[in-house]
Amino acid sequence: xxxxxxxxxxxxxxxxxxxxxxxxxxxxxxxxxxxxxxxxxxxxxxxxxxxxxxxxxxxxxxxxxxxxxxxxxxxxxxxxxxxxxxxxxxxxxxxxxxxxxxxxxxxxxxxxxxxxxxxxxxxxxxxxxxxxxxxxxxxxxxxxxxxxxxxxxxxxxxxxxxxxxxxxxxxxxxxxxxxxxxxxxxxxxxxxxxxxxxxxxxxxxxxxxxxxxxxxxxxxxxxxxxxxxxxxxxxxxxxxxxxxxxxxxxxxxxxxxxxxxxxxxxxxxxxxxxxxxxxxxxxxxxxxxxxxxxxxxxxxxxxxxxxxxxxxxxxxxxxxxxxxxxxxxxxxxxxxxx
Amino acid sequence: xxxxxxxxxxxxxxxxxxxxxxxxxxxxxxxxxxxxxxxxxxxxxxxxxxxxxxxxxxxxxxxxxxxxxxxxxxxxxxxxxxxxxxxxxxxxxxxxxxxxxxxxxxxxxxxxxxxxxxxxxxxxxxxxxxxxxxxxxxxxxxxxxxxxxxxxxxxxxxxxxxxxxxxxxxxxxxxxxxxxxxxxxxxxxxxxxxxxxxxxxxxxxxxxxxxxxxxxxxxxxxxxxxxxxxxxxxxxxxxxxxxxxxxxxxxxxxxxxxxxxxxxxxxxxxxxxxxxxxxxxxxxxxxxxxxxxxxxxxxxxxxxxxxxxxxxxxxxxxxxxxxxxxxxxxxxxxxxxx
Lengths: 338, 338
Prior knowledge:
- The structure is a homodimer.
- Helices cover 43% and strands 19% of the residues of chain A.
- The first copy, chain A, is an alpha/beta fold.
- In chain A, the strands form three sheets. Chain A has a six-stranded parallel β-sheet with strand order 1-8-5-4-2-3. Chain A has a three-stranded antiparallel β-sheet with strand order 9-10-11. Chain A has a two-stranded antiparallel ribbon with strand order 6-7.
- The termini of chain A are far apart.
- The A-B interface holds A 1-4, 64-65, 67-68, 71-72, 74-76, 82, 102, 105-110, 131, 133, 136-137, 139, 142-146, 220-224, 298, 300-301, 307, 319-321 and B 1-4, 64-65, 67-68, 71-72, 74-76, 82, 102, 105-110, 131, 133, 136-137, 139, 142-146, 220-224, 298, 300-301, 307, 318-321.
């Protein structure tokens, strides 16, 4: 009796210096969803895939309408295989990963998913942890699944082509996970003499492994354990700057005497060493705007309170439900709000 | 630290004689998706739910477009709660259950789902086992999830209002699961003097429990074990008549000497006792049409072969991958095809 064969045992994370000339996923069994900006630069790689679909990255990709039209496109392409043979390959940044990941999770009730992140932020964060998402109207990530990729392939040449601005954004995530994890690799990060993308590339793998260690303890966000990954996000989301949210959370933790001086200084000098500096907005937020922004955030626990992630030490976070008023007061004290 | 609270421990299956005057699910935490044919007859029950959405049952409900417009409707309704507090209640037949189940599985990455099936077929089969689905273009169930309901509520008065034709359709599923399971309840079914909906109601619970026993051994259809639930489906799908597919599968199993005479006779008299009789189409299928219909079926294993579920005895199925030509030859021998 034929049984559904198990997915081949592959390592979750692979690093390559360049796009493979042949994919380990049999291209004829793959649905390749790729950011159209790679149409030319990755032409040779793309040419191996008979079923490939260019998409335009960004929030407009993450709508149900674009999901619907993608399903129709696939249906017209004549692609048709049993679910267990199919692999969806997602080649792009965060929005492409969210979109293709969601598609893979619901196509024929779930097929194999491989991420090939093309931005540093996707490579260090969004490609890992299994969150997929679409938006509904103006509301972000209202529809989605928890659907971890079978494997993720990090390609140095692709990531290095993504520009310097990308590197700085990713440093925020790198330092966040370094502080949350506090493992031996963080010592190596602090003493590294590398810069920019060379530094990121070197510490990408341990950073991802640190994130995955946390995700695996709470893959569906049922126990609250994954919330430590939101360290720095509370104000970071409002300011649309994770790095600035980290400065706020570190200072807040220190101010509350949860984080002792030495560890606070260590975190600050890690950030300074990466060239990250506090950069309050020229026009500080009003207390009212900040309150509203914090309360519409999905992490709201009950009217008026949010879960805030404090740091007690490298490798030791503490989640507390605190009144929004306390966050606003602290933001004013630190100069982020007025 | 507030943790995501566990779903309250409820029994999976509850039976009620009438719609409850108060729902056990707090109505203000529920998204009630209901077949609009109950607008009047269930007005009192519906009146408890501040967030209720009438839908029109049928295949047109199971499109991504209708999914998309439902998401927009919900978004405009102002409903907004943390995922772990929300329950989706699906009140309707198979299409409503498939649709609402899919919605529950992806809304905020998954919320609690309660089925309130209103047709006998949904009550005995489709509400159980966690399969949710939408169609893409002409292709059925291309998009979906495995997402078991937290509980299913069987309401006698609702089911009895669904008409006699419904009862006969459900008898097909009842006899299928009875033959697959072969437990003690099947003896009771054979000797029961009840008829029609009274008979169905009495054996609904053991039939559902028998299905769930199989589903739980292979919830995501990864091991092939769930395929026994397709007993009778191979030709049943082609003829759009599960009962007729059962006659074919029983006769085929007997013809192949897999099913011994006594068990074959037992199955035939169980079916006869329920008033089910072989009813070949006036115009037999052509061999070519039958071959094409069998090969576009999703259960196709490899070009030219399908997995067919044979019966060896009550409670003992055997899955075999066999050439479509053998099925067509047997269908001609039995008079289903020419």
